[in-house]
Amino acid sequence: MKFRISPTVLRSGPRASRARTASRPHAQRAGGRGPRGGACAAALTKKEAEIWLTKKEAELLAGDWLNPDLGKVSFKEYNAAWIDERPGLRPKTVQLYEGLYRLHLVPGLGHCAVSEVKVAHIRKWRKERLDSGVGAVTVAKAYRLLKAIFATAVEDGLIKSNPCTIKNAGKEDSPERPVLTMKQVFALADAIEPRFRMLILLATFASLRWGELAALQRKNVDLESGTIRVVGTTTELKDGSVTIGPPKSEAGKRLVSIPATLLPDLKAHMETYAENGEHGHVFIGPKGAKLRRANFTRVWTAALKKAKLSGFHFHDLRHTGNTLAAQSGATLRDLMTRMGHSSTRAALIYQHTAIERDRAIADALGKLAEEAMKKQDPERSGT
Asked: Does the pTM exceed 0.70?
């Protein structure tokens, strides 16, 4: 005799289904999604049905049994709820997630039920994104979001395992940014509008981010001790609004020392350009407004042209400062603290760069020494 496992069996759980199978075997001939899959499962023998039920009972006892109806929610619906249920996300993060969701997740996976998405679907989705010309960095961001969503689905009991298992798919391999020379930094500082000269120098020699500089207030600058206390950062949204909030991590809240040689210029800037009052912003626009990247881009582009430079982004100044700090002999912990990072990853990159530079210097010195020794001892030349 053949049997089918009905949807009622699946919803009520394996214990109740065993009783039904034993007492009313012919009632289980209804269509449904059963152990062999498909909208209408293949018929089972009584023995096969009992084996299937035994496995389900074992899952129930182990706490591994899932109600298949829970996973039938569409990925599109679940994803939207996933974002809404995270009120602690920063506005810019919400904006990023909603963009990734709308442009990259829904087009390929939105029509699927959460429980239907398997590893093969994720692999195909990723390949289609890359083949369509979407940047590798954007695809990596979308994949990380996708993996986080399915991790929550596992926690919610919708699925047993996360289908996002592609090795290094969430890793961003951004191209290495250029490092300015000391001469280029000061050429740029001299070329830019005077009210933004210290913006260039602090971004470089205090390793401050754009948002940290735009949010910097008078009360957080101590000219006597030569330090800046970083406690906030600005976030610019697509609607043009600017919000000020805490740094992304606790490590971002830090005390940064300023090179003594810059203090006279910083003091002059505070007296001439900074907003009044202890809560006044250190850097503001010509009309007293908060700094916005869109407005500053014009100023930055003009300064690059005047300094006869090209291809540099504002963040390259911080990158340059971090590189110089590493070359000065800063330890890994020193770099992490100054940069405001809780992870060693970024600091290790700069430290590695410093080691490579040190090796290059040593090799150059070695060649000079070798040439000098050859002049003193002609036999070393091999002639």
From this structure: no
